[in-house]
Amino acid sequence: MRWLAPKILPSIVLSLEEISKHSTKNDCWLIINNKVYDVTNDISTHPGGESTIVPNCGKEATSAFNTKGGQENPHTSSANELLGKDYIGDVGQKIVRNPVTIQSNSTSQREIEDETEDEIEDETDD
Ligand code: HEM
């Protein structure tokens, strides 16, 4: 038998269920305008404090981000620039968790990189 693609890269679907698994300070994904961001690395240096972001981890956070949690003034362009660097993909999109192209220091990312393909399939099934 001939195998054209012997190595399948691990992938996940950015479902609401998947995003909700990343709901802590050390592993924080947010949905803003239907896009998914891994903001874990920006939490400790957030000018508005950690406590404003963390309750939004794993959730739809468009309104929280746009209003800075209820304030009148929106985030500046430099905040949006930072956010852009954290972009993972769109909600519902299937992404390849390739350690070369996706940078993250979050625990979950390291775990995914260390896991075998079979283990990843097990993890996404539940
Ligand atoms: C999702 C929930 C978030 C809330 C509720 C929130 C809230 C706040 C608050 C209250 C401030 C301080 C405003 C002030 O008094 O100057 C602030 C500033 C700031 N935040 Fe956030 N933030 C959130 C997410 C983020 C994210 C994800 C980033 C970047 C990836 C970010 C980047 C910044 C920056 C750079 C500032 C400095 C002022 C500015 O550039 O607008 N924030 N935020």
Write a structural description.
With 126 residues, the protein is of the alpha+beta class. The chain contains seven helices and seven strands, in the order βαβββααβααββαα. The structure holds protoporphyrin IX containing FE. The site of protoporphyrin IX containing FE has 22 residues, from helix 3, helix 4 and helix 5.
Tell me roughly what share of residues is in helical segments: 25-40%
Second CATH tier, the architecture: Roll
Radius of gyration: 16 Å
Fraction in beta strands: 15-25%
Report the span from N to C terminus: 32 Å
Bound molecules: protoporphyrin IX containing FE
State the shape.
elongated
- Helical run tally: 7
Labels describing this entry:
alpha+beta; 7 helices; Flavocytochrome B2, Chain A, domain 1; 126 residues; five-stranded mixed sheet; disordered C terminus
Task: Give me a quick take on this structure.
The chain has helices at residues 16-20, 40-43, 50-53, 62-67, 77-85, 107-114, 117-125, and strands at 11-13, 23-24, 27-32, 35-38, 59-60, 87-90, 94-96. The protein is an alpha+beta fold and 126 residues long.
Q: What is the topological layout?
A:
Blueprint: E1 11-13, H1 16-20, E2 23-24, E3 27-32, E4 35-38, H2 40-43, H3 50-53, E5 59-60, H4 62-67, H5 77-85, E6 87-90, E7 94-96, H6 107-114, H7 117-125
This protein binds protoporphyrin IX containing FE.
Residues 30, 39, 42, 46-48, 52-53, 56, 61, 64-65, 68-69, 71, 75-76, 78-79, 82-83, 86 line the site of protoporphyrin IX containing FE.
